């Protein structure tokens, strides 16, 4: 009796996922060294997969939005490429400087937007809206002063963009939407904080910054189009998502 | 023996467009992922549900698989096989891994294992949609010997490991390994599967 049996006898078993643990690991280690085995495995896996086409069951409808939202905030694996030559390392001090500078630039652009807005304001209603925005923007600059503040931006899939300032130490974030396409009546943009338990509603976007307290395990911010007034859980695919962790 | 006409790729449950969608998903195209979801979710959930049976666990594993498709789409190589094969192979492995880990937990708690064993399977069978290629798969399965067919089906649909299949069928380990391989080869030739 041999301690290492011929690995080729495992081809069928492997294609059916009927082998696990060290035996499976050993077989997988053998595969790259045996092109005929790999070819037969591919063929038998394709054969086994046809058995999997026999049962079609629609998953519960609410899972679609959940999966698409999870995808929107999940980083994809990079394609496998031949190893490139190692790039020259950028000194870390320069990186920090760049981050610092871009934070300041972003804060400045927020202020410029505010000033331009004040100059362009024509009537009392606009001024009132601006006053509310100013309260939000002052929260932005206040939050930007936190030592661990991060400013993140992403373009929306239908146009416009979103920016979020997050400070984990203060458990707080301010979200600003910019130039999202206007919606037909009866629809609102709704903001979500996506944590390990799924998306939590974080308010409607009404042309002003949205302040979020109690960040907790937030991994991302996402925006969906919802029926007017918002929904308890997202019902559409996000038009914008910003991973924060 | 009645010969069975070989299947074209479109008959094997590879809906047209899955390859193209998966390649677009690999480039981060969320819209393509939505379309791919609509195309493959019934097959993925059907397979997960068939192997796991438990609705709540199936929903969990289904979401894991769909997200895994999104995450690892760049690893799909159209030169090495069909998109649907790649997706269902990943699906089956995830489902079987869940069976194994659930079994390990259940072995520590016999009561849970018994509850799982008595869960009815009928609801799943009711929702099975019979399609042309599915009939061909069934016809081809009929060309296998009883032992080959039982070994393949116990492993694939029940998620049993080959030692478990050997014990269920009362045959030596080596016999089960051979029957699974020969059974799949016979099925491959009947279905005309090529890679």
Automatic annotation (TrEMBL), chain A:
The keyword Transmembrane helix applies. Its main location: membrane. InterPro entries: Anti-sigma-K/W_factor, Anti_sigma_zinc_sf, RskA_C, Znf_put. It is a single-pass membrane protein. It comes from the Bacteria. Pfam families: RskA_C (PF10099), zf-HC2 (PF13490). Residues 10-38 form the Putative zinc-finger domain. Gene3D superfamilies: Anti-sigma factor, zinc-finger domain (1.10.10.1320). It is found in: Cell membrane; Membrane. Residues 105-239 form the Anti-sigma K factor RskA C-terminal domain. Keywords: Cell membrane, Membrane, Transcription, Transcription regulation, Transmembrane, Transmembrane helix. The keyword Disulfide bond does not apply. This is Regulator of SigK.
UniProtKB/TrEMBL annotation, chain B:
Signal peptide: none annotated. InterPro entries: RNA_pol_sigma-70-like, RNA_pol_sigma-70_dom, RNA_pol_sigma70_r2, RNA_pol_sigma70_r4_t2, RNA_pol_sigma_r2, RNA_pol_sigma_r3/r4-like, WH-like_DNA-bd_sf. Residues 37-103 form the RNA polymerase sigma-70 region domain. Residues 135-187 form the RNA polymerase sigma factor 70 region 4 type domain. The keyword Coiled coil does not apply. The keyword Cytoplasm does not apply. Keywords: Sigma factor, Transcription, Transcription regulation. Belongs to the sigma-70 factor family. ECF subfamily. This is RNA polymerase sigma factor SigK. It comes from Lentzea flava.
């Amino acid at each position: 009796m041999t301690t290492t049996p011929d690995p080729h006898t495992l081809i069928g078993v492997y294609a059916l996922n009927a082998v696990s643990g060290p035996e499976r690991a050993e077989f997988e280690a053998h595969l790259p060294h045996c092109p005929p085995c790999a070819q037969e495995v591919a063929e038998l896996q394709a054969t086994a997969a046809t058995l999997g086409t026999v049962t079609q069951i629609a998953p519960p409808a609410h899972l679609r939005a959940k999966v698409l939202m999870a995808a929107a905030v999940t980083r994809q694996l990079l394609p496998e490429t031949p190893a490139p030559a190692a790039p020259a390392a950028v000194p870390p001090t320069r990186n920090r400087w760049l981050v610092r500078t871009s934070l300041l630039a972003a804060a400045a652009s927020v202020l410029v937007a505010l000033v331009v807005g004040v100059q362009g304001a024509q009537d009392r209603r606009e001024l009132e809206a601006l006053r509310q925005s100013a309260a939000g923007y002052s929260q932005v600059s206040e939050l930007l002063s936190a030592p661990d503040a991060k400013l993140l931006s992403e373009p929306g899939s239908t146009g416009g963009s979103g920016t979020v300032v997050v400070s984990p130490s203060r458990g707080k974030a301010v979200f600003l939407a910019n130039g999202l396409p206007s919606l037909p009546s009866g629809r609102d943009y709704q903001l979500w904080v996506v944590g390990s338990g799924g998306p939590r509603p974080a308010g409607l976007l009404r042309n002003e910054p949205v302040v979020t307290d109690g960040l907790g395990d937030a991994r991302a911010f996402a925006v969906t189009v919802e029926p007017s007034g918002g929904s308890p859980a997202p019902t559409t695919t996000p038009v914008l998502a910003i991973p924060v962790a | 023996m009645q010969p069975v006409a070989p299947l074209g790729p479109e008959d094997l449950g590879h809906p047209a467009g899955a390859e193209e969608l998966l390649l677009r998903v690999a480039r981060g195209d969320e819209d393509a992922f939505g379309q791919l979801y609509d195309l493959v979710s019934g097959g993925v959930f059907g397979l997960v549900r068939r192997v796991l049976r438990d609705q709540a666990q199936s929903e969990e594993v289904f979401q894991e698989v769909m997200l895994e498709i999104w995450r690892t789409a760049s690893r799909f190589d159209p030169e090495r096989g069909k998109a649907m094969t790649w997706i269902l192979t990943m699906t089956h492995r995830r489902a079987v891994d869940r069976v194994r880990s659930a079994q390990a937990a259940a072995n520590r708690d016999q009561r849970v294992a018994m509850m799982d064993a008595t869960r009815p399977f009928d609801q799943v069978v009711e929702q099975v949609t019979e399609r042309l290629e599915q009939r061909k798969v069934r016809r081809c399965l009929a060309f296998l010997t009883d032992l080959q067919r039982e070994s393949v089906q116990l492993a694939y649909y029940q998620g049993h490991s080959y030692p478990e299949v050997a014990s269920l069928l009362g045959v030596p380990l080596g016999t089960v390994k051979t029957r699974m391989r020969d059974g799949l080869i016979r099925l491959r030739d009947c279905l005309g599967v090529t890679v």
